[in-house]
Design brief:
The complex is a heterodimer.
Chain A: H1 6-26, H2 30-55, H3 60-90
Chain B: H1 5-8, H2 13-31, H3 36-55, E1 63-65, E2 70-72, H4 74-96, H5 105-124, H6 128-146, H7 153-184, H8 189-197, H9 203-221, H10 229-236, H11 239-264, E3 266-268, E4 274-276, H12 281-301, H13 307-327, H14 331-362, H15 367-370, H16 379-393, H17 399-413, H18 417-442, H19 457-475, H20 478-487
Helix pairs in contact in B: 2-3, 2-5, 3-4, 3-5, 4-5, 4-11, 4-14, 4-20, 5-6, 5-11, 6-7, 6-11, 7-8, 7-9, 7-10, 9-11, 10-13, 11-13, 11-14, 12-13, 12-18, 13-14, 13-17, 13-18, 14-16, 14-17, 14-19, 14-20, 16-18, 16-19, 17-19
Classes of the chains: A mainly alpha, B mainly alpha.
Chain lengths: 103, 493
């Protein structure tokens, strides 16, 4: 059996980061894009926890992860409020349909 | 000097004033009937915070506060003054703006003050966690401020785009920060500096980590390739908010970026010269971002018909000019960036104040709204606009010329001739579209039906101060450069 080490976590977090980036770039639905952003934030969280766990440098990493979770919640609240406002004026949350500012 | 939470409070009065007044404004919104009183109250609060910042100057030495989360030094004081002045001008404009009359103003002013509070933290953060929190604080309030015109399609669309780009940029940034944390084992800037100086981590991974982190900072200063949000957001947001984003938000991004790249990622080598730690690859990246930002910003601005959109691309180009001072990585470059931010504040707020004046009277923000402005009652605003635009283009004898002069001097002193050449060519290109607005205002005859433009005393007062500053600092700039010189000092412990 192979031991699970720091590098495994880093590989997973990189995959999650790339998946989030892919999701942001390809989704047309505003909620889908916000989900991609959450994936990116969580890949960073994985990194913080893995580094803090495997390098014994105190609890800074865990602290950062908690703050990121908190801010992700705040950002989601504001994001959903904005998306709701968009739905009321545009009657869709497709980001290509709401692209009217470019002349 | 390092201070714990309780001893830090005496350094923390400006922030406390702002934080308490945010809550106060939201509560007052429930009872106050005449909402413009809230705007006046917000103005008073900002002045109080400004006094508290300057008042604390003589007695308080430099120190790390709250167990090294934030720092108090001359550099931070300089930026706090800039943020307070920018917020003051924004609230002043909001009191005159027709657009802002329609919004729920208690929340609007509370959000503006909250955003200023976040910027104060951006100027003082000396820890990756604090830097991230401060940046998100400013971003979240900005998203809401941008979308503050409810049931307005453009405003809603702008805030959605701002939110999406902002979320991706800050996510990328904290992913990069996690790698910096992994390499150095600390989040404290001084600790990062010490670890990198000791040669920890492979240069390639460090380079990628810094690159990812720069995404978040680059988005805040609207540098290419993280500028995509700027044109749409500037167009859709109410004009005072646009002015706030283009000046205060950009300055706060620079405050964070400079403190991250100078004290954390560089070190003062022999002979007092700054040197990048690691393989110094990020310095080349900043150089490239600077050249690309000004080129793309200026070329895109050539084709714009909406003045706000044109000024958005012009602000992207100005981020490029200011990055020149960062790319050379010297005290002189640092000083010239601080000087340029003061000048940029005067001329850019001034330009947006006139866009607001025209939009208030005519409801238009495009070239047609400006046609023959000088001949339909707007002679004074047209002259002031011409001064701001020529200053933005960097033509003597206005302050913008002196600002560019110091930036280019720093670049040439450091032997970055290619950068100086690109910057020089860009200044010539930018003159074309600034002069195009001036020509529309003075040489084109009004077609009739545009309506007159009236100058009321309060916008006139703001314009008088900004114009005076732009002209006077173009002739007598010694006090400002002395201030920038004094402020270009980081507290390194």
């Amino acid at each position: 059996m192979m031991e699970i080490g720091l590098s495994h976590f880093l590989v997973v977090s990189t995959i999650v980061f790339l998946a989030g980036m892919f999701c942001v770039l390809t989704r047309r639905n505003a909620i889908g894009i916000l989900m991609g952003v959450e994936l990116i934030l969580n890949s960073a969280n994985l990194n913080y926890l893995a580094f803090a766990r495997y390098s014994s440098v105190g609890y800074d990493g865990q602290m950062f992860a908690i703050f990121v979770i908190m801010l992700a919640a705040a950002e989601a609240a504001i994001g959903l409020a904005i998306v709701l406002g968009i739905y009321q004026t545009f009657h869709t949350i497709d980001v290509e349909a709401t692209d009217t500012l470019r002349l | 000097m390092e201070l714990g939470p309780i001893e830090s409070l005496s350094y923390f009065v400006p922030e406390l004033i702002l934080a308490i007044s945010v809550i106060g404004l939201i509560l007052a919104d429930l009872v106050v009937r005449r909402k413009e009183q809230l705007g006046v109250a917000a103005l008073v609060v900002v002045v109080l915070a400004l006094i508290a910042v300057v008042w604390g100057l003589p007695g308080q030495g430099d120190a790390y506060l709250f167990n090294r989360m934030i720092v108090h030094d001359q550099y931070a004081v300089f930026f706090k003054v800039v943020f307070a002045l920018a917020t003051f001008a924004t609230i002043w404009m909001s009191l005159d703006s027709r657009e802002v009359e329609k919004v729920s103003r208690g929340e609007y002013y509370a959000l503006l003050i909250a955003s200023a509070l976040g910027m104060f933290f951006m100027a003082t953060a000396t820890n990756l966690l604090m830097a991230y929190l401060a940046l998100e604080f400013v971003s979240l309030t900005s998203y809401v401020l941008t979308g503050t015109l409810r049931h307005n399609r453009r405003s809603g669309e702008a805030s959605l785009k701002y939110l999406i780009y902002g979320g991706v940029a800050s996510g990328t940034m904290i992913y990069g920060m996690s790698w910096i944390y992994g390499i150095t084992g600390t989040m404290d800037y001084a600790g990062i500096n010490a670890a990198l100086a000791a040669g920890q981590g492979t240069p390639l991974i460090l380079f990628i980590a810094v690159l990812l982190t720069l995404a978040g900072f680059g988005y805040k200063i609207a540098a290419v390739p993280f500028h995509m949000w700027a044109p749409d957001v500037y167009t859709g947001a109410p004009i005072p908010v646009t002015a706030f984003l283009s000046v205060a938000s950009k300055a706060s991004g620079f405050a964070l970026l400079l403190r991250f790249l100078y004290p954390a990622l560089s070190t003062v080598g022999a002979g007092g010269q700054w040197q990048a730690l690691g393989d110094g690859g990020w310095q080349q990246v900043v150089l490239l971002l600077s050249m690309v930002s000004m080129t793309i910003g200026n070329l895109a601005a050539l084709q714009q018909d909406n003045i706000k959109r044109l000024l958005a691309y012009s602000s992207v180009a100005h981020a490029g000019y200011m990055l020149m001072g960062l790319a050379v990585l010297s005290d002189e470059g640092l000083r010239s960036i601080l000087f340029y931010l003061v000048v940029y504040y005067l001329m850019n707020i001034g330009a947006f104040a006139i866009v607001m004046l025209v939009a208030n009277s005519t409801g238009r923000e495009d070239f047609d709204g400006f046609r023959g402005l000088a001949w339909r009652g707007g002679a004074i605003p047209a002259v002031a606009m011409a001064i701001f635009l020529f200053s933005l283009a960097g033509i003597p004898p206005f302050a913008g010329f002196i600002g560019k002069f110091y930036l280019f001097a720093a670049v040439i002193r450091a032997d970055f001739y290619l950068l100086a050449l690109v910057g020089g060519l860009n200044s010539v290109v930018s003159l074309y579209y600034y002069a195009r607005i001036v020509r529309t205002m003075f040489l084109d005859q009004p077609a009739g039906g545009e309506g007159g433009v009236e100058l009321d005393w309060s916008t006139g007062g703001l314009l008088a101060v900004l114009t005076l500053g732009t002209v006077v600092f173009g002739v007598y700039w010694a006090p400002v450069i002395a201030l920038a010189d004094r402020s270009a000092r980081f507290f390194l412990g």
